[in-house]
Amino acid sequence: xxxxxxxxxxxxxxxxxxxxxxxxxxxxxxxxxxxxxxxxxxxxxxxxxxxxxxxxxxxxxxxxxxxxxxxxxxxxxxxxxxxxxxxxxxxxxxxxxxxxxxxxxxxxxxxxxxxxxxxxxxxxxxxxxxxxxxxxxxxxxxxxxxxxxxxxxx
Length: 154
What we know:
Order of helices and strands: HHEHHHE
Radius of gyration: 18 Å
Distance between the termini: 22 Å
Largest sheet: 2 strands, antiparallel
Structural class: mainly alpha
Strand content: 5-15%
Number of helices: 5
Number of strands: 2
């Protein structure tokens, strides 16, 4: 990967946005759970609930909500709700909007970055470009947005 067009943000800013997004994802999972309980009638008197197929669909919906949030946000505007107050945007090497493929790779490799005690994130502290593992592996990176900072094309 060539050097990013703008310096990547410091780790603390990234972790702040990740904390916000974790709260958003928790709310999404709760909303999906509430909606599925309302749609399936929840557990009835004999505690059978929606049945095995219904439970499987609910579990799939619960698992799909956070990835859909990240993929949709990154591809549609380059920002999640958590990234906005921290003035972060995910971009391709040229500073443009990322593709669905790049967003998918970024999401999967971000999980890899978290797996070994967050080592993939801590890597940004020693990386010369302040990039994380998932920045490098997905060929995307975060840039600062806001007053006086150029934003990518959509």
